[in-house]
## 1
Amino acid sequence: MTVSHPSAERSDDVDEMVLRDPHAAYQLLRSAGPIRQLQLFPEFDAWVVTDYEEARAALADQSLQKAPPDTAEGVAFDSPFEDELSANLLRADQPEHTRLRKLVTKAFTSRRIQEMRPRIEQIADELLDEMDGHTELDLLDAYAFPLPMTVICELLGVPDDDRDDFRAWSNRLLDTDVTDEDGSSVHEASTAMAAYLMKLIAQKREEPADDLLTALIDARDSEDRLTERELVGMVFVLLVAGHETTVNLIGNGVNGLLRNPDQLAALQANPELLPGAVEEFLRFDGPVHLATARWASEDMDLFGAQVKAGQMVLVSLLAANRDSNRFENPDRLDVTRAPGGHLAFGHGIHFCLGAALARLEGEIAFGRLLARFPDLALAGDPAAPLRWRYSTIIHGLETLPVRLTA
Ligand code: HEM
């Protein structure tokens, strides 16, 4: 698959290739062992784990801590979300992590999530109604983005009128912008995002309702179970994780299907394959590229590498999910593959809180889309280069132009 990006003029070494064309880069890297140092950020190198077994072990290894240690290398660069947004689950170690996660687990259990099925189906159908009558459109804008965004906003109980601003800030926080040398664009986006979240919390304090944000505010104001910074950090992580990822489950999965017509036909002929197909989309082109940063808490031997205290360790979920020692024919999309075992939702104590919700959204999104537009196809020249977002965290397309009818 060819990929282009505005920064293609940068040096074409493997470090840069990991961001520009990750699957090809990991194929080159894998033969060099399960871990190696890469320069993914301008100021410092990070250790990157690429093989399945080691990736799984690293995700569960609590000597790789989430809170940057005092002596960490490159912390200033890695912390654009200072200060208001950083007190969140993905930056917390035990025991803070357990306390914070307990506040939200109840809202995300499979049973609670299954109750949302009729409403998610309705949201999908409304978006599909709006698409009807168009010949070509960007599936990310019209469907893959608004669906999970509407769901997470309703679950929290916040308006989604500002969702375009929110999407722009969130993209700026998660993508690597090579032109933002002094970090001012990221800083501006994190300041705007923090101000917006504080406004949402203030509004909800004025008008409480039967929703997750009200419950979190109660836990703060009546029970003192989290600080104000932690409240803002929680809303931040739920809103960002709730929509930056599922949009790319839908986008990457549809892209994979439309480029593999035999798999599309198999799924259309056997809709009962859908839940397994969603797992395969997650394995084949998962929405998260590298899991969020971990830091060595001490000098250690990590899979044969001498990692020093304070160095950053990143786990490549994309690489692990294409490890041929774990998955047969890993570069083949196969909707009949026995599901399970992929690392797209992470592993260990930070395993994705929203996995059940994302799976349900995915199942509904693919099922409704293919039923409504059975002749769905890529618009334009299928051999034309795809533009992937340039990001250490997100693996997703910039746009996905499709034709709706034959
Ligand atoms: C297909 C969609 C999704 C994918 C692939 C995904 C992936 C992940 C991954 C890989 C992690 C762990 C990161 C790490 O260990 O560094 C994670 C954590 C998390 N995800 Fe998801 N996610 C998805 C959807 C969602 C949704 C819909 C929500 C809903 C709010 C959500 C909320 C979270 C939260 C709160 C965490 C942090 C958990 C913790 O630190 O304990 N995610 N997700």
## 2
Amino acid sequence: MIEPSVVDKVLGEVSLTLKVEEVELFDSLGRTLAEDIHADRDFPPFDRVAMDGIGIHSSQLGKTKLFKVEGIQAAGSPQLSLMNNENCIEVMTGAILPQNIEVVIPYEWTEKAEEGIKVLDFKNAQVMSNVHQKGTDKKKNDLLVKKGKELSSAEIGILATVGKTKVKVIQLPKIAVIATGDELVGVNEVPKEYQIRMSNCYSLKASLSENGFSSEIFHLTDDKESLIVKINQLKKDFDVLVFSGGVSKGKFDFLPEVFESLGIKKEFHGVKQRPGKPFWFGKSEQQVVFALPGNPVSTFLCSNRYMIPWLNNQLGKEKYLPTTAILDKEFKFDKPLTFFLQVETYYKEDGLLYAQPVKGGGSGDLAKLTAANAFLELHPEVDIHEKGQQYTVWFYKK
Ligand SMILES: Nc1nc2c(c(=O)[nH]1)N[C@H]1C(S)=C(S)[C@@H](COP(=O)(O)OP(=O)(O)OC[C@H]3O[C@@H](n4cnc5c(N)ncnc54)[C@H](O)[C@@H]3O)O[C@H]1N2
Ligand code: MOO
Ligand SMILES: [Mg+2]
């Protein structure tokens, strides 16, 4: 058995080889960019009028007088040209600055008259006041978004403005979520007394979805021969296989030996932790296999503490740096294991994050997951975890 910190180390050394694919602009949201994005033209691409008002020649600065209007420069219209330096052109925000115009005076500083527009005040207007000058934000070919960036709504707007209808992103791994166990029936079925509906695979699929990964659900029964045949097929079709159940000491916990017979090499089996002690992890040439212990809270903890961060890491997403919270009540756990305590976190007036232990059963108590929002990682060195101590907190909900 290994410590949680060793699990982190082992996982840190395993990686998937993911290809690059091209997706539609909007489908790139949440994905990892696989190309550098450069400015296709200057930003802004022309001297852009920044206020609705009148445009005048710089020789007229300071002259609080009536300006005759030669025309209106609307946004989206070709560039006009001021013929007479004494006159003005009405200019709209977003329009190209007309030729021979160097200053924009907002309407608020003017007054409409019958023969034109009178400027009442120039405030501190200078040459190019209220003009967003061409290329002042970015120059053509400047790097706008770097390869490796996780695309958010901010980047989608940038991609749109440079005309990227198709975007190169890192391909997502193909993930199978596999429930094992003869006691499991479908969600739409009525279980017999000794059966239960499968839930782990749905919560795993949901966690994956929350992190931008799609997955397919399968159910395999506790029959060694059929496990061999079916897992061998899944191995061909998927990059990551996530199992729940079938990895402990039971007579029908066949997964570790089935994996071995299929050439999936064990990296570790057993972590000095509760819940999730029987966690098995291994890999073959192409696939990575997470075999999570079947008790629902164990599956959930192993997924959120290890698997999801590892997957995010594969896509180069910004590392989730676990934060800390202050235990608000003494908690006793005297086994030589790291204990992941289910807690509800909250802020106090002091601005610090506190964690309140959530009462309930053990790793089979699925219903307790909704009362808590995080796990507190309690070290095995001490038996009594005192109120006021700080521990690493792993959120699974805000
Ligand atoms: N002799 C020992 N027995 C057990 C040990 C041990 O060290 N020695 N470890 C216990 C711990 S800790 C856990 S956790 C479980 C892990 O068991 P498995 O991974 O083998 O899982 P199963 O035996 O298949 O199932 C355990 C439990 O979980 C329920 N389950 C399984 N899959 C699902 C699912 N998709 N949805 C909902 N619930 C599921 C299953 O019905 C069982 O109740 O082993 C302990 N035993
Ligand atoms: O990992 Mo087991 O989760 O302690 O029941
Ligand atoms: Mg078992």
